[in-house]
Design a protein that fits this description.
With 402 residues, the protein is mostly helical. A two-stranded antiparallel sheet has the order 1-2. Helix 3 runs antiparallel to helix 15, helix 6 packs antiparallel against helix 11 and helix 12 runs antiparallel to helix 16. The relative contact order is 0.16.
Length: 402
């Protein structure tokens, strides 16, 4: 695996810490900004919506720009967004800073994923993407709990300053270690890349990703108040449980990355089904402290176990447009990341309590399993046998397998 792929994983560590750290900071942010916890939870949705909109837009806007330069500009903009969030005097300014950061994060994910698969052989795609997702897992192991710890001891703004510093380190890594990516033999054409959306399997992949992500983040976004108000744990336990979720995410990513190439649909369906079972268990037994802690860890394992397969599946069915494939995957994940917290806030405001977020999430993941099973049925009925051309190797067609 090229060293540059690990640099991308390091950059994703900073991005992922910012994306997920609010799960441990909602109560202090809500108190400081004089808003309710569900309204503070909309900051998570704001980031996700920015990712949904920004991924395809920035992928299209930068389609013909040098990849390395694009990555540098995006990580710099992301760092500026973190500083703006740390200095935000009002909820509206903080909300806007999250959107700006999300736009930069979305573009980085889309371009970074395309760069990662361009640097490895076709049969190493899932492993390369697993390295990038590993940065996200480590963010959950170290970055998110550290953000909660800083928020508890030094105030929630200190977590934003810390992510800004991590972004600066990532920028230095890109400058020094990411090589210049050669331009494709054939210039990318927007119309050709947009043709991927005519493929029913591409649309099904979007639905599977969005529903799976929404189901998990419907519950995960409100994990801190669930742990404290329902399970009765002290606030000091929140960083520890978030770290356990991250450890589970790292384990899940490692296992999923190993098996995704050979058993893609098996990983998809079994992992999302496991999410469903764990969410139901969290709804039933979340009031017990030990159960809540163990189930948080298992949710991290199951959720990230499917991530390499979900990413690789999209690149396989949309192989003729790798940049838009990466952008579409990012947008689909964050469509779920936006919808999940929003739905969770609705059921909380309706008076059903924090455990109801797990019930709502289980409904969404069940729908995702059904959609994945339907995609598998279609594939078995009519397996693709066409030869498609990769953008980064237009003169050397390769046969793409799902």
């Amino acid at each position: 695996m090229p060293l540059a792929v690990y640099v991308l994983g390091l950059s994703v560590f900073a991005l992922g810490t910012s994306e997920f750290m609010l799960s441990g900071l909602l109560p202090p942010i809500a108190d400081d900004m004089n808003v309710t916890i569900p309204r503070a939870g909309l900051l998570i949705s704001a980031f996700a919506v920015g990712m949904v909109v920004g991924a395809p837009l920035l992928a299209v806007a930068t389609l013909r720009l040098p990849r390395r330069t694009t990555l540098l500009a995006l990580i710099a903009l992301f760092g500026v967004g973190q500083v703006a969030g740390a200095l935000a005097p009002t909820y509206a300014v903080l909300f806007a800073s999250r959107v700006v950061s999300a736009l930069a994060c979305a573009g980085f994910w889309a371009v970074g994923a395309a760069v990662a698969i361009a640097m490895v052989a076709e049969n190493a795609r899932a492993r390369a993407l697993a390295v990038m997702i590993g940065g996200l897992s480590i963010a959950n192991v170290l970055g998110v709990p550290a953000g909660a710890f800083l928020g508890e001891g030094l105030g929630w703004r200190s977590a934003f300053w810390a992510v800004g510093a991590a972004s600066a380190v990532a920028l230095v890594g890109i400058v020094t270690l990411i090589p210049r990516i050669p331009s494709p033999a054939e210039k990318p054409q927007l119309r050709r890349e947009l043709d991927i959306y005519r493929d029913r399997q591409v649309r099904l992949s979007i639905g599977v990703i969005a529903l799976a992500a929404a189901g998990v983040f419907c519950a995960f976004s409100y994990l801190a108040p669930l742990l404290t108000d329902v399970a009765g744990l002290d606030d000091s336990w929140v960083p520890t449980v978030l770290a356990l979720f991250g450890v589970g995410a790292l384990i899940g990513t490692t296992i999923g990355g190993r098996f995704a190439e050979a058993h893609l649909f098996g990983v998809l369906i079994s992992g999302i089904a496991a999410d469903t079972v764990i969410l139901v268990a969290l709804a039933l037994f979340g009031r017990y402290a030990v159960a809540a802690v163990v189930l948080s860890f298992l949710l991290g394992v199951a959720c990230f176990y499917t991530a390499p397969a979900l990413n690789a599946r999209m690149f396989n069915v949309a192989a003729a447009a790798p940049t838009l494939a990466g952008a579409t995957t990012t947008a689909a994940f964050n469509l779920g990341n936006a919808g999940g917290p929003w739905l969770g806030g609705i059921v909380i405001d309706a008076g059903f309590g924090y455990t109801s977020t797990a019930w709502a999430g289980a409904v969404l993941t069940t729908a995702s399993v059904g959609m994945a099973a339907y995609a598998l049925r279609l594939y078995r009925r009519n397996p693709p046998s066409r030869v498609v051309t990769r953008t980064n190797a237009a003169r050397n067609p390769v046969r793409i397998q799902p």
